[in-house]
Amino acid sequence: MFISTSAQRIQNLSRQFIVSSQNMLSTQLNDLQNLNIDEYVKTQKDSTNITHIKGNCPRKLYELFRGEHMSCGTETIDPKSEVPYHLHTDEEEILFCTKGKGKIFVQNQERDFYPGVMVYVPKLTLHRIVNLSETEELHLTWTLSPPAKVQKFKAGVNN
């Protein structure tokens, strides 16, 4: 009798869990149907947080998305320019080359950086990107997690 009562309780709990899961999934599907995809698809032209860094190392940073756990965007490095050695105290970073040819330095190691190359940079790790071209820009995407602080990004500060 005890076994059948326990089995019955487990069966009832399983039914409640299934119904609860179905309700939650139904709610999530309804939310997805009301999704405005324009809030999630961005181009450089949509960026409202653009940083133009001038001087010895000219480049442009475009923040395209900022969420609770990450931020991402694009960067364009002028010919014969670079992103000087820097580190991020709180953020890890993923860099992905989309156009051009350069070199990426992580700590004291160097690698070619060209379209299709992805580099993961842990927090507190020195890194630098150099555009080797005399005439063409180097284009890359970047993702920071957690998101970089807005004031640092707007100021062009890289740590």
UniProtKB/TrEMBL annotation:
It holds the Pfam family Cupin_2. InterPro entries: Cupin_2 (IPR013096), Flavonoid_dioxygenase-like (IPR052538), RmlC-like_jellyroll (IPR014710), RmlC_Cupin_sf (IPR011051). Residues 75-142 form the Cupin type-2 domain. It comes from the Eukaryota. This is RmlC-like cupin domain. It comes from Pseudocohnilembus persalinus (Ciliate). The lineage of its organism: Eukaryota, Sar, Alveolata, Ciliophora, Intramacronucleata.
